[in-house]
């Protein structure tokens, strides 16, 4: 089986977020594999181990994403590809990223493509379904289970807490939801092996793409932090009185009940 | 610039979800004085068309087919593309729900358009329609504009106020024919886990329990409080992992993102991943026996105490308030 994983390097949102010069301050921040893409990588490895084949992890980004791609190789992926846009593009949006990924994937005869359901920084959840549509293959989002049987697949999809059991066939793109699996940590031998695995780097030129072909359709004009919440009111006194006061405050001050 | 905006209504269990009316309100803003056209897709949906008009749609277009009884990306995109072909809209608004999240990127890819997802507000400013959306798990916000082509957005439930319902409004309801065929994904079974009653992502009041609730039975007082306030019950991952409740209740980075008017956190410590799902709630109340718990940092009101004492007292007080109201 020819398996591809779409991986985004993301800002670790557990970190404190600050803004400088109208942008999220990245100095000294931790960067990680988008957590949903870890599920995607793990699932790809498991599918390969059960069915044979090869796992290629692809990322659109800058040179800095090499670190996360190496981690994916250390987990057990076979190959990694970085599509480096640093020299070619200033701006981009989901249209840009999906178009680049699709252009790369279009002649790869992928049987299965696994993405995360959402990136924890950008948070749109668009890239997976967009890529599937451009490639003309079907997709199932937010999956919690994947069973492959020859060229057919049975997938469990999380729909706001309910589960749908879906039957479909390959080629297929799925996006990973929490609960799909437990991603492994890279082992020491894994890390050693990863150093020798191929990590190819491509630029837009290699995909026969021009800047104009992938020009963003939307633009960010401002980034800001939510207004700092004033310290809340912790009530005091007898418990019964606190409860009475809380109900009164919710009714007359906050006016939410 | 006046424009024609299509708004996708979303049907669940035979009625329109609230987010449909919020989307109509967003559509109205986005239309800048143009036309707002509701779209309903399903096996039998035309009876709901007037409600969209009562909430502000100028008219409604329906696509009905028994193959559209359940949502599939192929079926719904074929239906919607038929409507788009006949209406040639300049704007599209969906809810940022399971359905909207799944369908919108597919439509955007078909139309080669941009898409601004998970919008919490929109306004006209300086000749542009400006969309605001949370990024970095709700820790920051960005304002975005469309620079090329269709104005396309999905809106987060519970953030954009619907327009006043006006039952005297009327408008045209027409059906569009679409050939629904070759569905590549087939739904074999739907396992309902989400609790009956109020929909968590649309609830105005949420009572959430954490590991402090201690057992499945521990959720009972929370359920009683929720029913008095016509709210929904939610949970932290701590409670889900401990099997006190189903994962369908989980709120947070890897669960649901909610923005109710009132969020009451009971026995929840306030881990960053939990806050990612609820910190934009309008009013947050924390009940926790540990005065140092992180949840108090985001709470508007806090009670330090045992939730098993506080919650039943709260239920009684709210009952009194409801009787007097
Ligand atoms: C040149 C360039 C400049 C950019 N500049 C900006 C900017 O200034 N501001 C800004 O906010 N964003 C910028 N972006 C990023 C872009 O807006 C989105 O962040 C990106 O398209 C992913 O969208 P998302 O974060 O919503 O991911 P989602 O759609 O939520 O991601 C879902 C899944 O898609 C896959 N995926 C997403 N992104 C990638 C990727 N890059 N590589 C491989 N797989 C991926 C992953 O599997 C992920 O889990 C830029 C992108 C490019 C190419
Ligand atoms: C990648 C990742 C994703 C995650 N996603 C999520 C997510 O989506 N949602 C989520 O919630 N978590 C998520 N988590 C887990 C998160 O980090 C916390 O572990 C979890 O939120 C803790 O749950 P809790 O607050 O219920 O439990 P605890 O942290 O154990 O807190 C229990 C609290 O109850 C209080 N308490 C105990 N008894 C009582 C009593 N009788 N009365 C009053 N108070 C009492 C205690 O003082 C304590 O503050 C994620 C973690 C990771 C690593």
TrEMBL record, chain A:
GO terms for cellular component: cytosol. Its cofactor is AMP. Keywords: Electron transport, Transport. CDD domains: ETF_beta. GO terms for biological process: carboxylic acid catabolic process. The electron transfer flavoprotein serves as a specific electron acceptor for other dehydrogenases. It transfers the electrons to the main respiratory chain via ETF-ubiquinone oxidoreductase (ETF dehydrogenase). This is Electron transfer flavoprotein subunit beta. It comes from Cytobacillus firmus (Bacillus firmus). The lineage of its organism: Bacteria, Bacillati, Bacillota, Bacilli, Bacillales.
UniProtKB/TrEMBL annotation, chain B:
InterPro entries: DHS-like_NAD/FAD-binding_dom (IPR029035), ETF_a/b_N (IPR014730), ETF_a/FixB (IPR001308), ETF_alpha_N (IPR033947), ETF_asu_C (IPR014731), ETF_asu_C_CS (IPR018206), Rossmann-like_a/b/a_fold (IPR014729). FAD binds at residues 211, 236-237, 250-254, 267-274, 288. Its cofactor is FAD. Residues 5-194 form the Electron transfer flavoprotein alpha/beta-subunit N-terminal domain. Binds 1 FAD per dimer. It holds the Pfam family ETF_alpha. GO terms for biological process: fatty acid beta-oxidation using acyl-CoA dehydrogenase. The keyword Electron transport applies. GO terms for molecular function: electron transfer activity; flavin adenine dinucleotide binding. Gene3D superfamilies: HUPs (3.40.50.620), TPP-binding domain (3.40.50.1220). Keywords: Electron transport, FAD, Flavoprotein, Transport. Belongs to the ETF alpha-subunit/FixB family. This is Electron transfer flavoprotein alpha subunit apoprotein. It comes from Cytobacillus firmus (Bacillus firmus).
């Amino acid at each position: 089986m020819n398996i591809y994983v779409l991986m985004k390097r993301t800002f670790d949102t557990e970190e404190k977020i600050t803004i400088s010069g109208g942008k999220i301050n990245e100095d000294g921040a931790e960067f990680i594999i988008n957590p949903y893409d870890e599920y995607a990588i793990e699932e790809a490895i498991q599918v390969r181990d059960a069915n044979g084949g090869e796992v290629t992890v692809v990322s659109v980004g800058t040179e800095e994403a090499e670190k996360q791609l190496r981690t994916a190789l250390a987990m057990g992926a076979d190959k990694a590809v970085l599509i480096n846009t640093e020299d070619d593009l200033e701006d981009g949006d989901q249209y840009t990223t999906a178009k680049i990924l699709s252009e790369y994937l279009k002649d790869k005869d992928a049987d299965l493509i696994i993405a995360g359901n959402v990136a924890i920084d950008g948070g749109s959840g668009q890239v997976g379904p967009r890529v599937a549509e451009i490639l003309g293959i079907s997709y199932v989002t937010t999956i919690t289970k994947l069973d492959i049987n020859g060229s057919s697949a049975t997938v469990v999809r999380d729909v706001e807490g309910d589960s749908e059991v879906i039957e479909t066939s390959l080629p297929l793109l799925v996006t990973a939801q929490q609960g799909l699996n437990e991603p492994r940590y890279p082992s020491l031998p894994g890390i050693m092996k990863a150093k020798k695995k191929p990590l190819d780097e491509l630029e837009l030129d290699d995909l026969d793409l021009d800047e104009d072909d992938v020009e963003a359709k939307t633009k960010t004009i401002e980034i800001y932090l939510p207004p700092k919440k004033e310290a809340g009111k912790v009530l005091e006194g007898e418990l019964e009185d606190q409860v009475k006061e809380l109900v009164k405050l919710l009714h007359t001050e906050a006016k939410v009940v | 610039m006046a424009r024609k905006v299509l708004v996708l209504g979303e049907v669940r269990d035979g009625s329109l979800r609230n987010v449909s009316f919020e989307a109509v309100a967003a559509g109205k803003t986005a239309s800048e004085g143009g036309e707002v056209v509701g779209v309903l897709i399903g096996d039998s949906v035309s009876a709901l068309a007037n409600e969209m008009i009562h909430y502000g749609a100028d008219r409604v277009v329906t696509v009905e087919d028994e193959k559209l009884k359940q949502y599939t990306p192929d079926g719904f995109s074929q239906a919607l593309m038929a409507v788009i072909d006949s209406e040639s809209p300049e704007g599209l608004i969906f809810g940022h729900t399971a359905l909207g999240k799944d369908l919108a990127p597919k439509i955007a890819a078909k139309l080669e358009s941009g898409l601004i997802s998970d919008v919490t507000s929109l306004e006209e400013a300086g000749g542009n329609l400006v969309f605001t959306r949370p990024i970095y798990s709700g820790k920051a916000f960005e304002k975005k504009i469309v620079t090329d082509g269709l104005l396309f957005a999905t809106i987060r439930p519970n953030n954009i106020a619907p327009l006043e319902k006006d039952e005297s409004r009327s408008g045209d309801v027409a059906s569009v024919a679409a050939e629904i065929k070759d569905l590549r994904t087939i739904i074999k079974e739907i396992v309902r886990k989400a609790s009956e009653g109020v929909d968590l992502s649309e609830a105005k009041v949420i009572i959430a329990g954490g590991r402090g609730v201690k057992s499945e039975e521990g959720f009972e007082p929370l359920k009683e409080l929720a029913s008095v306030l016509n709210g929904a019950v939610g949970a932290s991952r701590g409670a889900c992992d401990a099997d006190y409740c189903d994962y369908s209740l989980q709120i947070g980075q890897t669960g649901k993102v909610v923005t109710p008017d009132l969020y009451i956190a009971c026995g929840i410590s306030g881990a960053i991943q939990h806050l990612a799902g609820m910190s934009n709630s309008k009013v947050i109340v924390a009940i926790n026996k540990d005065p140092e718990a992180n949840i108090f940092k985001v709470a508007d009101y806090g009670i330090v105490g045992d939730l098993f004492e506080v919650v039943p007292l709260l239920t009684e007080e709210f009952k009194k308030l409801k009787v007097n109201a």
